[in-house]
Amino acid sequence: MPVSTLKSAYWTGVRHGAPFLLVIVPFGLLFGVVATESGLNLVQVMGFSILVIAGAAQFTAVQLMVDEAPTVLILVTALAVNLRMAMYSASITPWLGAAPLWQRAIAAYFLVDQTYALSQARFEARPAMTLRERMAYYFGAISPICPLWYVATLAGALAGQAIPPEYALDFAVPITFLAMVAPALRTLAHVAAAGTSVGVALALAFLPYQAGVLLAAVAAMAVGARVELWTGARA
Questions:
Q1: In terms of CB atoms within 10 Å, which end of the chain has fewer, N or C?
Q2: Can you tell me which residues the record assigns to a coiled coil (predicted)?
């Protein structure tokens, strides 16, 4: 395959991933600030972001640590929040599963919400792409997103209280997930799962240690799977 074709696929991924910097940078800054203010030192903050590389789970875990929740509950809740990564992996395996092990290992580490959303949409829209083109696009989408997550986290951890409150960096959290979830609501099952998660999370907001989020995730998956089976049977 011509190198130019792979370069084109890579740079297309870079271009598609670049707009997410508008939310990734403040998201990372916010985590660095919050984690530092919660008592983590610089090494712990950066280790958290590099090893976990999952903003939602990181925020959840830090908040539970501040609330002095039991360690088991912190681990279970963080894993539950990241359970979507298992579904992402199963969904994207048909497109990337034939790649060499080392490439799949790197791809698995960098499987985050943004790279999955971009890659899945691209691969479905262009099923004729070769495996090498898919991998090039995937790594292209990673390039502007993941390195800037580390840099923004470091900047937030170093800056700490120096970032004025009126900057309201917390806007990045809901906007990030709205930007990814909204285009994915393509079927009745998707809508039912999303609606269930919102409803259950709000109804159980009174539970301690954000346990309502954990239960909302379980309920959403169950409802989504049931609706998908029902619609499949009707079809």
A1: C
A2: none
